[in-house]
Amino acid sequence: xxxxxxxxxxxxxxxxxxxxxxxxxxxxxxxxxxxxxxxxxxxxxxxxxxxxxxxxxxxxxxxxxxxxxxxxxxxxxxxxxxxxxxxxxxxxxxxxxxxxxxxxxxxxxxxxxxxxxxxxxxxxxxxxxxxxxxxxxxxxxxxxxxxxxxxxxxxxxxxxxxxxxxxxxxxxxxxxxxxxxxxxxxxxxxxxxxxxxxxxxxxxxxxxxxxxxxxxxxxxxxxxxxxxxxxxxxxxxxxxxxxxxxxxxxxxxxxxxxxxxxxxxxxxxxxxxxxxxxxxxxxxxxxxxxxxxxxxxxxxxxxxxxxxxxxxxxxxxxxxxxxxxxxxxxxxxxxxxxxxxxxxxxxxxxxxxxxxxxxxxxxxxxxxxxxxxxxxxxxxxxxxxxxxxxxxxxxxxxxxxxxxxxxxxxxxxxxxxxxxxxxxxxxxxxxxxxxxxxxxxxxxxxxxxxxxxxxxxxxxxxxxxxxxxxxxxxxxxxxxxxxxxxxxxxxxxxxxxxxxxxxxxxxxxxxxxxxxxxxxxxxxxxxxxxxxxxxxxxxxxxxxxxxxxxxxxxxxxxxxxxxxxxxxxxxxxxxxxxxxxxxxxxxxxxxxxxxxxxxxxxxxxxxxxxxxxxxxxxxxxxxxxxxxxxxxxxxxxxxxxxxxxxxxxxxxxxxxxxxxxxxxxxxxxxxxxxxxxxxxxxxxxxxxxxxxxxxxxxxxxxxxxxxxxxxxxxxxxxxxxxxxxxxxxxxxxxxxxxxxxxxxxxxxxxxxxxxxxxxxxxxxxxxxx
Length: 769
Known about the structure:
It is a single chain. This protein has three domains: 84-181 and 409-528 and 538-593, Rossmann fold, CATH 3.40.50; 186-248 and 281-404, 3-Layer(aba) Sandwich (Dimethylsulfoxide Reductase, domain 2); 648-762, Barwin-like endoglucanases, CATH 2.40.40.20. The protein is 35% helix and 16% strand. Helix 1 (17-30) runs parallel beside helix 3 (70-79) and helix 8 runs parallel beside helix 28 (553-564).
């Protein structure tokens, strides 16, 4: 790509609008599915259709005519593409040659069409039969100690596939079930059980209709979950204030033009989303939230002294919470100077936000990886819970905590047993149902798996979806270690780097996508997923399969399990492989409280909600109450260098043309970047302070330990970001992220605050300089 293709300019338009429609039309044409894609999209997120393969935002009972967003439509077009990557493609390109391809170009080849095995003599992947592939994979796994194998799951896998996968792995003999939650919302899963006794959020779509205030922290709705903009727009039309804390001014959090509204499209009307927008310093959210709490507690103290109505919900605190006095003492004793320094926000801004919170009857707090992907990510989530508990904003209609999950069933796979923590799986029930001894040893998280691969303790990797090697930290070290694995198996729809870099024995197994009609067993099958609001839905494919040799994930898992495990009459793998209703019956028997009448209820519009005691103010915690947690630090990354020096806090982020590691194109419309992903967004003062100019090419180097970690070819780009902070794209900047730089309790990689220095390699060049 030449410099002539690169354009960087300020973007001052709302999210949605004509830009969204143009982008949708472009990708349908690029993937040669203009008509098929348009037909498929009419079934997306509908009660009798398929659940979006992109984000996990809620599916309403009464959907819009077009119940999809720009990114969801891109994900659909990307999956049902007319392009193919047949065995001939791999015969024409050696694995070593394909290693030089960009992520976008690899996936852009299209859908995989046949099972493939890497051939050492030719360095090419060659077609094999399903029978020989699964037999050899099973034979290799049996030759290893179970602790030496890792079984990864992306957030795409259905409830049915996830249940079979975790059962196979546990019957094999380990709990090595890392998943994409380990890389994003594990901080939530660790934080919330200690505060409210649940590992998931408490908000449903009904709460958005009843709320009178919304707080946003570290979540870019315009890129990560655009369908939520419908709920936010409806709230703003009711004059509900939305208070946003985010380092970058993201268009989706500023204003929205609904592309489904002819009036808005024809009149250029738009809805202001945020009524207050606070550009918190990267890693400063904990300090900002403590500032909000301090303002509320001090105001309540004043009311108590004057004998006037209180600011805090003292009745709720007394009846339902534990630890308030210790937390309040911490808030009172923390100096405003320290809060301002940690958060990068002034006292006046924080007290204004607190005043808005105090006036609200019911408040929803929404957050994303901007809170979870820090060293103190767990504590920051607990700080947000503290804020909600002060006025009883959990277990009340229109209020609650709302972690926005990323991939489409990442929350659901945890519900049915995908976890490396044996205490979170119903091991006794599984043993009773399937007559085996379940392993009790703690399994490997994503970080643990990476460390094990580097150290040589892990010898086999089986990936159920995803692009693990690109998603994890320490890219260069991981790729070197990856080549030493005995076995790598990737169950996937498209080529990606985790397949091209391979072990001694390597397989690529093509699976059906969720949007495709699944006729396994001679009948049209359907699957199930869980959305971010803990509602469970059925999903049925609507397009013809990409290849007659592609197999469904449940079939692949069940058939592999039958080859891998000793015969067990209680685990009918062959029956499960051909009838997913039997899998759902097994899920219901394992989790009767959650999945009662599973087969019938999953088709109801809007899905059925998981039981969640916290919604009824029943607290499944050690104290029996909701717990206030006293923070240990105002900084989400207390081991970071001071921003006043030449060290910058780098946050990695996704573009508008991307979902997770999948890159649809090289434009980021919302940030005005076109034709490249090699940019480093910086504050203009930092650019001048460090002797740089807009357009300079630089190398970013991690400041952490003695190990060399660098990413070069980044273009300095002036952006509206707090001083001392910088931003660049994921996964390109993953080589800068040390494996040990993760959340203290959850081991989520701290990708939102990486200490870096920069050095110039050339002067200004190209458009935008």
